[in-house]
Design goal:
By secondary structure, the protein is mainly alpha-helical. Helix content is 72%, strand content 5%. It has a two-stranded antiparallel sheet. Strand 1 and strand 2 form a beta hairpin. 0% of the residues are buried.
Length: 85
């Protein structure tokens, strides 16, 4: 018998079902606020927003890497990795 399965008291499909439902709800809220509507009434995210969100996350990663490099030189890699200063 699988001891890990015995310790859980809910079916394994519940958590993905809940997270998928919340994801759909948040997507609808985002579409409602930032989306555009076609003449047929279908909501969509314009290309400008898609590009900005995609490029913004890449820019944030690059800035974070630069700050991490500076902090590792200044405080040492172990302290930066552990979050200490």
């Amino acid at each position: 018998m699988d001891t890990q399965r015995e310790s859980t008291k809910h079916p394994s499909f519940i958590l993905p079902l809940i997270t998928h439902s919340l994801d759909q709800l948040s997507c609808y809220s985002f579409l409602k606020r930032f989306g555009a509507v076609t003449p047929e009434g279908v909501r969509y995210i314009p290309a400008q927003w898609q590009s900005a969100l995609s490029n913004g996350s890449s820019a944030g990663g690059i800035i974070g890497l630069m700050i991490n490099g500076w902090a590792a030189e200044r405080f040492g890699p172990k302290q930066v990795y552990m979050g200490e200063s």
